[in-house]
Write a structure and sequence with these properties.
single chain, alpha/beta, 6 strands, globular
Length: 143
């Protein structure tokens, strides 16, 4: 499996960040992990990373429910800010919600991947296998 240059995880729950980081590390997908506690912090990290590396992270694992700027607000800013619009194709929603309304809303906003927490090796492998297909991908993780 090809390594990713970097991934950004956006979640305000340290336990979720730890679990997601562990799943990604076990598959050795990348050596560069970036972390943000909310959408606002994520944009600061994205801008800083782009300034240093002249690229954005390959994937952005995004929680929906956060205090400051939530996942839906983050997606909306990505869609409406020219320098971020291509990032819509790199967002993977990783949420505790498997409500149809949340899934449909993110799909309607242009997000292609939605995985319920916890992120596991199996859900990551399925997700990565789906990336070239172009259709919407939903996975309900089994804990």
């Amino acid at each position: 499996m090809k390594k990713l240059n970097s991934v950004l995880m956006v979640d305000d729950d340290p336990i979720s960040l730890y679990i997601n980081n562990t799943a990604i590390s076990e598959l050795e997908l990348t050596e560069v992990f970036l972390f943000a506690g909310d959408g606002e912090e994520a944009f600061v990290i994205l801008d800083d990373y782009f300034t240093r590396e002249n690229e954005y992270p390959n994937l952005i694992f995004l929680d929906l429910k956060m205090q400051a700027m939530n996942g839906l607000e983050f997606i909306e800013r990505v869609k409406t800010t020219d320098r971020y619009t291509l990032l819509i194709n790199r967002i993977v929603v990783v949420s505790s919600s498997f409500a149809a309304a949340d899934i449909e809303k993110t799909r309607d906003m242009g997000v292609k991947w939605y995985v319920t927490k916890p992120l596991t090796k199996d859900s990551l492998l399925s997700l990565l296998a789906s990336t070239g297909r172009g259709e919407f991908y939903f996975s309900r993780s089994q804990s």
